[in-house]
């Protein structure tokens, strides 16, 4: 690859246009909250790693836990390194993605965690949402663990820092859930495939919800690759629909005081404020405290994760877009994910980034099946370019030109439903993959 007033955490890339990334790998059948409590992305511990191998898991201390599934015991494993924010501001995003990834491996292998008689080993490393740490952990995965694939990461900054390593080591990197356009644009290399949607796809969906001839829109996003790429894509999509931008506000990514930015937004007198945000330091409470909506400015953004939705009761009736909500897709894969997530996580539903992790896992397993188990990068690239595969969001297809997955998005309205403790994204209509196909930016 989107928020609410007073969201303390997972502000979801509330960006009406770019949500944020996620990635990490938690244990299948682990305990805890699938919705998370925090912000956006993390990986296991502070610098720790978690490894699962065909039913046997190894923690950072190296202690092995036996499992009943030993069919592939003794055979060389297929190793997948997952980079995710398992701690810090993006922790909840990272956990959602990692849990989804492990469920995806289980789904694609019918619970065996093996392909072609070889066990699949997942090694999760915490990037701490720091690009230098992401490089360190990716280097460890590539050089010490000798992984066959990289997956990640929860932030665009981390992901952009790691892309050159994938190329240098000739290893496929499946990007999930980072959304910056530059990942499949200016910084792309042929080893990069992305199951996450990018900023331009979010932008088209976000603009479709509010932009039209004569509408004035202000924007608010963090001063980061994620934020600026998201707003750039949104501006382009909104302009094509006849809207004008009154001001662009980019507070520091770690900012906690947005007073000056909000005041400038109010002074620009827009019809709408379009917000792109992710992380725990969200601007929603200050937007509420400064009575932005009382001044006739409508807020629009992407529907966030469940923790953030719980803070959005003042936005009931808002029209925007969603990357995913558990009740939006109507297909067998999503039905499996919903039921499996409830089994593993005490009845909780899959959250915003869970299906992305699952989609990345399915993409990798489908590619390996297509090559007959050959893990040579050139063979995998040939198999994956143009490849379609079924995910919780329906059919995804890796576009051959830039390896961006084309996928369904959702135009939604936030509604109140009896017995649900948060506003629910109600489907207005599906935005088909061809509708939200982003421009090709990699100059391949």
TrEMBL record:
Pfam families: Peripla_BP_6. It comes from the Bacteria. Residues 31-48 have a biased composition (Gly residues). Residues 1-28 form the signal peptide. Residues 77-416 form the Leucine-binding protein domain. Keywords: Signal. Residues 49-64 have a biased composition (Low complexity). Residues 31-73 are annotated as: Disordered. Belongs to the leucine-binding protein family. This is Substrate-binding domain-containing protein. It comes from Paenibacillus chartarius. The lineage of its organism: Bacteria, Bacillati, Bacillota, Bacilli, Bacillales.
